[in-house]
Amino acid sequence: MSLSGITGSTSGLFSCGHFGQGVEVIVGPTSYLADFHGHFSFLLDPNVLSQFLSGAVSLVPLLLQEHVSDGIGNIIGPITIRKDPDREPPQSTLTAIVPGVPFPAIQDIISNIHVTIPNLLPGITLRNKIPPNPGPAILRNSNVTNFPPQNDVYSLVEPMELEDVNNPGPVLATIQSFPITVNPPTP
């Protein structure tokens, strides 16, 4: 296994594209479906990743640098998701299931986000509720077989409640599911 396929591997920056189909977003009492595309960028230590791939360490910290997801759905219209510029999430991780054996592994992508849904919530920027209700979003793949991931599916660990950045408290929307495929094959 090698570090090929990692954008900027010598600098420690790893970027990967993603797409999601049938993402469920609830606004008020109504559930909507949308499709998304975008990318994540992480900062990682290439030496730690090399040690992980050789079985010498069992965890690779991944520091989320960028999260961009753009979606569209019938009625709900356009949706944007961006990394929250004001709240750094805890580190994301790539963790071996069996110590000393890099794969299969569990990868958690942890993110605090800002969301806009201009057709239904004009002029409002949403964010995931502050911990413990429920806190940062966690996208998980419990069966990673390679790094960087190739065509791997990640899902929300739990629904993500969203509140108004300028009027925190009430839940205005919930991302119920966010199944995404990371590094899908290119046509």
Write the topology of this structure.
Elements: E1 13-27, E2 30-43, H1 46-53, E3 59-73, E4 77-83, E5 92-98, E6 101-111, E7 113-116, E8 125-128, E9 137-144, E10 152-156, E11 160-164, E12 167-177, E13 180-182
Poorly predicted ranges (pLDDT <50, ≥5 residues)? 1-10
Average the pLDDT over all residues and give the rounded result. Answer: 91
What is the subunit organization of this protein?
A: single chain
Spatial shape: globular
State the main characteristics.
13-stranded antiparallel β-sheet, mainly beta, 1 helix, 187 residues
Structure description:
The chain has one helix spanning 46-53, and strands spanning 13-27, 30-43, 59-73, 77-83, 92-98, 101-111, 113-116, 125-128, 137-144, 152-156, 160-164, 167-177, 180-182. It is mainly beta and 187 residues long. Strands 1, 2, 3, 4, 5, 6, 7, 8, 9, 10, 11, 12 and 13 form a 13-stranded antiparallel sheet that branches. The longest helix is centred in the N-terminal third of the chain and has 8 residues, at 46-53. The radius of gyration is 17 Å and the shape is globular.
What's this, in brief?
By secondary structure, this protein is mainly beta. The chain has one domain (about 15-180).
